[in-house]
């Protein structure tokens, strides 16, 4: 079979070369190569059908739910010399006109166009895309964060449901769905909604295991009446700094140009105020911590992120609300701490999974209290009446997460893999609190938490009504 060569394109047969040249990376992440190859194979089929594009023009539409993520990716692609654009409510009028004109030509110069699901529902966009399709220039549709399509996904978005339009209007154009975390229920729902389950032989599926052996998972029990999160965290981080300051580690780190206190990490919390408070308290204690949340200016956010990514002193720890971290390319995150219980199991796992992408040992711990469990539950119940809410799915995910936290008789890695539908039990090498010391875990569980009686009394008095904003 002749190989597919397009000059001036991101698609070249030598994937390793392309990776090095365009993205300055030396190796693929697991499955990246196979997925790209499968997409390229789809192209070859398309070419055999004489839907060829000898001109070298061919556009991929990427549907993405998050504006900030979209901007980051377009910037990164442009920096790598790829003609990428985004089209959403923030796009300046002039640029919008340019993109629409580019599509209307039928032979767009743009290689990758990032759009929101809301935009995909507009007639103007649909008409233009039809022109591109008629000219046989529509290469593929990629749908990012595809779990948002499913009502069983934790961040369900209504307009995602209407994306079945792609398959109905452009039956031969391959569709790629990308998501970090989806259990079977979510996955089937996504395929069904997009009408991809009607032709199973066209479907190629790549599932990464949820098992991350280099991450140590731990739950730390606490209660409102005896909240020692701050001192506990300080004690832990100082012990890490201490170990790194001792010989021979100190000399090793110096040779690598690393400071002993350069231990990059993320602390997730649930409100903006708490985000600011924790960062300020940590700074007072000499830890290089910075807040990150939606209310900060774009400049401050960009600067904080850039300095954290480049390991600058004073920017070792990011204290963030939940949206932080999507699409961020930083391999050496050594810890992720959940200051409060996240709202869903998927959210917890996604955030924790930002640690240790370089494969080195990393630490994830979550401060769990039953009071927080009921606070988060109240937030979900409060949304129950809003029309688009999938509150049952959210409540069920939260319940599983709380049970995970209160489980002291099973490996954390196993519980995570079970949740994502994997039947094989991973071999855990002391990489969770259960395997590290079962007796100690049970002792901490019994001593740390408030009793259910106490918590329900508090709840009845309305003391657990949270007023958290992200
Ligand atoms: Zn374990």
TrEMBL record:
GO cellular component: chromosome; cytoplasm; nucleus
Enzyme Commission number, as recorded: 5.6.2.4
Transmembrane parts of this sequence: none
UniProt GO MF annotations: 3'-5' DNA helicase activity; ATP binding; ATP hydrolysis activity; four-way junction helicase activity; nucleic acid binding
Entry keywords, A to Z: ATP-binding, Helicase, Hydrolase, Nucleotide-binding, Nucleus
Cellular location(s): Nucleus
Domain Helicase ATP-binding: residue ranges: 60-200
Primary localization class, coarse: nucleus
UniProt-listed SUPFAM superfamilies: P-loop containing nucleoside triphosphate hydrolases
Pfam families, per the entry: DEAD, Helicase_C, RecQ_Zn_bind
A Gene Ontology biological process term: double-strand break repair via homologous recombination
Catalysis: reaction(s): ATP + H2O = ADP + phosphate + H(+); Couples ATP hydrolysis with the unwinding of duplex DNA by translocating in the 3'-5' direction
InterPro entries found in the cross-reference section: DEAD/DEAH_box_helicase_dom (IPR011545), DNA_helicase_ATP-dep_RecQ (IPR004589), Helicase_ATP-bd (IPR014001), Helicase_C-like (IPR001650), P-loop_NTPase (IPR027417), RecQ_Zn-bd (IPR032284)
Residue ranges constituting the Helicase C-terminal domain according to the UniProt record: 229-402
Similarity section: Belongs to the helicase family. RecQ subfamily.
Protein name: ATP-dependent DNA helicase
Organism: Xylaria flabelliformis
């Amino acid at each position: 079979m002749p190989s597919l060569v397009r000059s001036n394109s991101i698609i070249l047969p030598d994937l390793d070369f392309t990776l090095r040249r365009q993205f300055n990376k030396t190796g693929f992440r697991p499955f990246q190569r196979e997925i790209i190859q499968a997409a390229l194979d789809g192209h070859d089929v398309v070419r055999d059908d004489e839907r060829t594009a000898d001109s070298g023009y061919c556009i991929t539409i990427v549907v993405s739910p998050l504006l900030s993520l979209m901007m980051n990716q377009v910037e990164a692609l442009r920096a790598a010399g790829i003609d990428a654009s985004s089209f959403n409510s923030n796009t300046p009028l002039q640029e919008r006109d340019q993109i629409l004109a580019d599509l209307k030509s039928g032979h767009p110069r743009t290689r990758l166009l990032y759009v929101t699901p809301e935009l995909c529902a507009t007639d103007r966009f649909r008409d233009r895309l039809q022109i591109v399709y008629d000219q046989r220039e529509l290469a593929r549709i990629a749908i990012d964060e595809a779990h948002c399509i499913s009502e069983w996904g934790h961040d369900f978005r209504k307009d995602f449901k209407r994306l079945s339009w792609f398959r109905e209007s452009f039956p031969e154009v391959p569709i790629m769905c990308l998501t970090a975390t989806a259990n079977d229920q979510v996955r089937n729902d996504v395929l069904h909604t997009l009408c991809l389950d009607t032709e199973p032989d066209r479907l190629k599926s790549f599932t990464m295991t949820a098992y991350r052996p280099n991450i140590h998972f731990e739950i730390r029990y606490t209660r409102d009446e005896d909240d020692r999160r701050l001192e506990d965290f300080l004690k832990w981080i100082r012990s890490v700094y201490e170990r790194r300051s001792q010989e021979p580690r100190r000399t090793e780190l110096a040779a690598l140009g690393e400071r002993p206190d350069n231990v990059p990490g993320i602390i997730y919390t649930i409100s903006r105020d708490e985000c600011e408070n924790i960062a300020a308290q940590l700074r007072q204690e000499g830890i290089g911590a910075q807040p990150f949340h939606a209310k900060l200016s774009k400049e401050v956010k960009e600067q904080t992120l850039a300095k954290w990514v480049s390991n600058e002193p004073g920017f070792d720890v990011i204290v963030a609300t939940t949206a932080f971290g999507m699409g961020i390319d930083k391999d050496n995150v050594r810890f992720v701490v959940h200051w409060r219980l996240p709202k869903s199991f998927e959210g917890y796992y996604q955030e924790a999974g930002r640690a240790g992408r370089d494969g080195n040992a990393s630490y994830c711990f979550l401060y769990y209290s039953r009071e927080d469990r009921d606070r988060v539950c109240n937030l979900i119940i409060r949304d129950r009446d809003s029309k688009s809410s999938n509150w049952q799915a959210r409540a069920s995910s939260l319940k599983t997460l709380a049970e995970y936290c209160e489980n002291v008789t099973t490996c954390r890695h196993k519980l995570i893999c079970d949740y994502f539908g994997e039947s094989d039990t991973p071999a855990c090498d002391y990489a969770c609190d259960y395997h590290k010391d079962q007796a100690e875990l049970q002792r901490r569980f019994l001593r740390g938490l408030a009793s259910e009686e106490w918590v329900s009394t508090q709840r009845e008095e309305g003391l657990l009504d949270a007023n958290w904003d992200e």
